[in-house]
């Protein structure tokens, strides 16, 4: 009985995921309305709930894809994967104010460069503080602080050890997850309530999943503006980290 | 037809990804450079032209709006499939590096935004929710209400 149920959930994984996420959203919005009186967004609670479930799933299965490694919830991987996520992000652009994007365009580009640089310096600086001296290691960890994709790509290009690459991925994951949680909490403080600051936020933080979830939990209307700049971030990081930034680190060390 | 909207969305996505891939190849990086962003611009541009010519049917729009409304649930599913365990078990170097990157990034947002534009979206924690409700209903009814509603509510906010 149980076996055939699990089999059914596995076979119809995407449909099952829709039902599971719908239920999770209901619980999250119920908590938001009844326990926090709407002070904490339902979407923010839902995302935190998702992260907690991902931890539980990862801890019990030892896999790398959170709750979606549990057979019963395997559809979450497809539903929350890059393909549907990007489709939904693009759909949010429908109804966007083009004037706003044109006006903030230049600042957005500046934010992109500053964002990659500041994250890289933060990650590389921490690596030095923890005693790393090899420019390859420092660059790889710094690149990981840019995003968890830039880290391993840079590490592979420079020939870093798998230990350091794993570290760089972890740094990127911490950044992404912290962004999801910290963005709605600090939004008021940093003035993240208009399209312009959302575009700059997207450029400065850049990690797509973090920006996507952080803005969704703050104000869904800001999502397209932040996503627009963030989408260039990883590419820029991969462009700069193993080349210009690596040369800079080697010159300094 | 609803599929026209979905196909338009999907077409923009694929075109954007192809351009992003070509850009990446041109710059010799092993990554898609801004494909999603390019797709967003394509969608904005094409739907804008269609709207101006009165060729944007409500059912077409609802095909796009459905995915727009699915955004948050998809993000929740994404959160549930993150490798949270690895993030926490990466050791102090990873933790401190990640935290520092976020703190510095967030701190720089007001600096780069400059003078706070007076166009701030009004301060209502549930504004996003109430405004997105019509979007969701429209998916089933195909009612044009949603679009006007969304514009009416967001226009004053975006005005300079």
In brief:
The complex is a heterodimer of chains A (253) and B (160). Chain A has 253 residues and is mostly helical.
What does it look like?
The complex is a heterodimer of chains A (253) and B (160). Chain A contains 13 helices and no strands. With 253 residues, chain A is mostly helical. Chain A folds into 2 domains: 2-80, no CATH class; 98-252, no CATH class. Chain A is globular. With 160 residues, chain B is an all-alpha fold. Helices cover 76% and strands 0% of the residues of chain B. Chain B has helices spanning 2-26, 35-52, 58-69, 71-80, 84-88, 92-113, 127-141, 145-158. Mean pLDDT of chain B is 76; it is low at 123-160. The chains are: A mainly alpha (253), B mainly alpha (160). At the A-B interface, α2, α3, α4, α5 and α6 of A face α1, α2, α3, α4 and α5 of B.
Provide keyphrases for this structure.
heterodimer, A: 253 residues, mainly alpha, 2 domains, 13 helices, B: 160 residues, disordered C terminus
């Amino acid at each position: 009985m149980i076996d055939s149920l699990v089999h059914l959930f596995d076979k119809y994984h995407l449909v099952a995921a829709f039902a599971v996420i719908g239920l999770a959203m209901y619980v999250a919005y119920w908590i938001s309305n009844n326990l926090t009186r709407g002070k904490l967004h339902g979407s923010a609670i839902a995302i935190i709930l998702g992260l907690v479930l991902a931890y539980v799933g990862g801890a019990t299965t030892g896999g790398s894809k959170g709750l979606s490694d549990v057979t019963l919830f395997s559809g979450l991987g497809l539903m929350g994967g890059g393909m549907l996520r990007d489709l939904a992000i693009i759909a949010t652009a429908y109804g966007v104010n083009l004037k706003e994007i044109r006006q903030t365009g230049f600042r957005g580009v500046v934010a992109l460069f500053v964002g990659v640089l500041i994250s890289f310096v933060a990650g590389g600086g921490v690596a030095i503080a923890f005693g790393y001296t090899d420019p390859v290691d420092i660059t790889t960890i710094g690149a990981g602080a840019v995003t968890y994709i830039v880290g391993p790509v840079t590490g592979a290009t420079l020939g870093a050890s798998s230990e350091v690459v794993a570290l760089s991925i972890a740094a990127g994951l911490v950044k992404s997850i912290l962004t999801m949680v910290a963005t709605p909490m600090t939004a008021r403080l940093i003035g993240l309530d208009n399209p312009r600051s959302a575009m700059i936020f997207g450029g400065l933080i850049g990690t797509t999943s973090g920006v996507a979830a952080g803005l969704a939990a703050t104000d869904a209307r800001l999502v397209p503006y932040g996503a627009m700049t963030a989408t260039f971030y990883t590419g820029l990081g991969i462009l700069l980290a193993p080349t210009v930034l690596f040369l800079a680190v080697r010159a300094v060390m | 037809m609803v599929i026209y909207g979905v196909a338009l969305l999907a077409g923009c996505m694929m075109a954007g990804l192809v351009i992003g891939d070509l850009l990446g190849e041109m710059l010799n990086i092993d990554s898609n450079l801004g494909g999603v962003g390019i797709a967003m611009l394509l969608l904005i541009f094409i739907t804008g032209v269609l709207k101006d010519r009165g060729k944007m049917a409500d059912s077409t729009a609802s095909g796009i709006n459905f995915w727009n409304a699915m955004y948050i649930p998809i993000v929740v599913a994404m959160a549930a499939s993150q490798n949270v365990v690895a993030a926490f078990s990466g050791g102090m170097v990873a933790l401190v590096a990640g935290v520092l990157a976020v703190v510095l990034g967030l701190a720089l947002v007001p600096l780069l935004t400059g003078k706070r534009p007076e166009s701030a979206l009004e301060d209502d924690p549930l504004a996003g929710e109430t405004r997105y409700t019509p979007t969701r209903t429209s998916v089933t009814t195909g009612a044009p209400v949603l679009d006007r509603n969304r514009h009416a509510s967001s226009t004053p906010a975006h005005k300079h």
